[in-house]
């Protein structure tokens, strides 16, 4: 009996559970560049091009290994519009009634596959180190689901950076060493770049024709699009960037979009790299004294701690998670997030980099665009859709908890113990953005005051009932309460005026 084996665009791994359970002699693999998947949000053109090219190369690899593959290109004459349509076409063509698949990473896809009039066998995605069931067991009975404790369990489970039953160096977490201000010069050349080959060139032409109006610059395109290239990228970063990653992972510099960051989230999230193998390679660099412990621990924490934890939160919280709005924010996403003019140098830098690279590192996302959206009271669902659309590494399982939970506090504190908000002082400390800004970061009131300074206190004031008793925010409220009454009134009035201009569509 012929069965169909569905391989999704973020499942490009030879050890995929669906492939391990299939019979190469009889089963048929289904892969499709379905328009529905490419357009459910207005994805960055680089993101679409990355996935399509990587899918085409993976399909060719599977064929070379002896698999039967039915692959649908977006511009095929009978191209399916959805994954379900691709499976139904395949079922009719080969006489199949059963589908094997690895669990998808988005509720949207899981629910669509459940509607198929075929027998669907869904297998766990064991490319992750913690299964959904393991995370549920870890979370059961806990009042707070803090990543730090989950991360320690993952260290014990994997043995990474462990010396017996103790953490290497005597500490679990070296985050306090990883917050240095930007360096005066960056002594790395950045990520390894790849010239488009024939497959990539064909995809770039297709994406330019079909998605050229989407937000984002398509070329130059330099991403890795197969496992060999992704591994070369990783090796290059370990040799050149890892040693400086820890110290400067929170820093931001104009003209330096990558600094010492690995830029591998997109390769991990579509399956070109294996997370445990990546972490083992980074740990090996530490053992060989090629990188300090604070850099290696900080990186491994992001992969086996934060990445796994975020996925666990997504499936634990369920389908309605992306609709949560605990703070009741309703302002529309500003036009500056789509590249329209703004006088705010930090927003202009972060959005411009996002447009050109389909990438921004975690502090640019959390403390520039995310911080602004939270302070300004932007509708978290609109913020969620923006992040999902504009970043090459964004899939809902990883993006939604980072945005709805960590960035926007819309889940009421499941992910974060306090809102991640700051005034302009933090941005000035961790970047050189403020030096070229039209606003004055040291100015607290008036037309030239940094909007982050105004909005910071405006946010705290309007949500004081909710956060004033939060032990991590007590100092903030004590400063606000000690401020002279007329000063507080001026700050709030200036913030209201600034937000009114934003709502009116003025350049701010």
Give a description of the structure.
This protein is mainly alpha-helical. Helices cover 49% and strands 5% of the residues. The strands form 2 sheets. A 5-stranded parallel β-sheet has the order 3-2-1-4-5, with helices on both faces. The longest helix has 25 residues, at 293-317.
Per the principal axes of the C-alpha atoms, what is the gross shape?
A: globular
> How is the quaternary structure best described?
single chain
| Gyration radius over CA | 24 Å
Stretches where pLDDT falls below 50 for ≥5 residues?
Answer: none
Describe the structure concisely.
Helix 3 (45-64) runs antiparallel to helix 8 (198-211) and helix 16 (380-390) packs across helix 17.
Lay out the secondary structure:
Elements (H helix, E strand, L loop, with lengths): L3 E3 L10 H4 L7 E5 L2 H5 L5 H20 L3 E5 L10 H12 L3 E5 L4 H8 L4 E5 L8 H8 L7 H12 L3 E2 L2 E2 L30 H14 L15 H14 L1 H7 L16 H6 L4 H13 L5 H25 L27 H13 L4 H15 L3 H11 L5 H12 L16 H7 L20 H12 L1 H4 L6 H9 L2 H19 L5
Parallel strand pairs: 1-2, 1-4, 2-3, 4-5
Antiparallel strand pairs: 6-7
Helix pairs in contact: 3-8, 7-13, 9-12, 10-13, 12-13, 13-17, 14-15, 15-19, 16-17, 19-22
Which tags fit this structure?
single chain; 22 helices; 508 residues; mainly alpha
């Amino acid at each position: 009996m012929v069965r169909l084996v569905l391989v999704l665009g973020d499942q490009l791994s030879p050890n995929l559970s669906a492939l391990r359970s299939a019979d190469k002699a009889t089963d048929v693999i289904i892969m499709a560049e379905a328009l529905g998947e490419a357009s459910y949000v207005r994805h960055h053109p680089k993101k679409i091009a990355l996935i399509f090219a990587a899918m085409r190369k993976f399909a060719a690899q599977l064929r070379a290994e002896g698999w039967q593959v039915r692959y649908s290109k977006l511009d095929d004459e009978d191209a399916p519009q959805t994954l379900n349509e691709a499976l139904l076409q395949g079922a009719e063509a080969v006489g199949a009634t059963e589908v094997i698949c690895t669990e998808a990473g988005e509720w949207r896809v899981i629910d669509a596959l459940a509607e198929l009039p075929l027998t669907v066998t869904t297998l766990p995605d064991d490319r992750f180190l913690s299964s959904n069931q393991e995370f549920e067991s870890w979370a059961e009975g806990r009042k707070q689901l803090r990543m730090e404790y989950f991360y320690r369990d993952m260290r014990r489970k994997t043995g990474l950076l462990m010396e017996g039953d103790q953490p290497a160096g005597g500490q679990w977490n070296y985050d306090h060493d990883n917050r240095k201000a930007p360096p005066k010069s960056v002594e790395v050349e950045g990520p390894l770049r790849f010239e488009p080959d024939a497959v990539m060139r064909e995809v770039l032409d297709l994406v330019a024709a079909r998605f050229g109006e989407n937000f984002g610059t398509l070329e130059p395109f330099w991403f890795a699009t197969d496992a060999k290239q992704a591994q070369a990228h990783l090796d290059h970063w370990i040799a050149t960037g890892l040693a400086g990653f820890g110290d400067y992972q929170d820093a931001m510099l104009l003209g330096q979009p990558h600094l010492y960051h690995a830029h591998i989230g997109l390769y991990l999230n579509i399956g070109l790299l294996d997370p445990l193998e990546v972490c083992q390679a980074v740990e090996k660099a530490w053992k060989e004294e090629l990188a300090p412990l604070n850099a290696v621990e900080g990186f491994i924490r992001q992969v086996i701690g934060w990445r796994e934890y975020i996925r666990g939160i997504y499936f634990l919280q369920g389908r309605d998670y992306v609709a949560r709005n605990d703070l009741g924010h309703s302002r529309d996403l500003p036009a500056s997030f789509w590249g329209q003019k703004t006088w705010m140098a930090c927003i202009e830098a972060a959005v411009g980099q996002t447009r050109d690279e389909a990438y921004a590192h975690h502090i640019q996302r959390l403390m520039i665009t995310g911080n602004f959206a939270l302070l300004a009271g932007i509708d978290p669902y609109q913020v969620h859709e923006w992040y999902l659309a504009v970043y090459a590494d964004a899939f809902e399982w990883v993006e939604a908890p980072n945005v709805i939970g960590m960035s926007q506090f819309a889940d009421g504190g499941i992910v974060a113990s306090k809102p991640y908000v700051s005034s302009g002082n933090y941005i000035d400390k961790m970047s050189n953005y403020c030096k070229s800004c039209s606003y004055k970061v040291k100015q607290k009131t008036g037309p030239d005051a940094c909007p982050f300074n105004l909005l910071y206190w405006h946010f705290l004031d309007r949500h004081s009932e909710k956060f004033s008793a939060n032990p991590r925010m007590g100092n903030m409220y004590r400063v606000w309460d000690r401020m002279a009454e007329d000063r507080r009134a001026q700050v709030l009035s200036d913030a209201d005026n600034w937000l009114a201009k934003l709502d009116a569509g003025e350049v701010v």
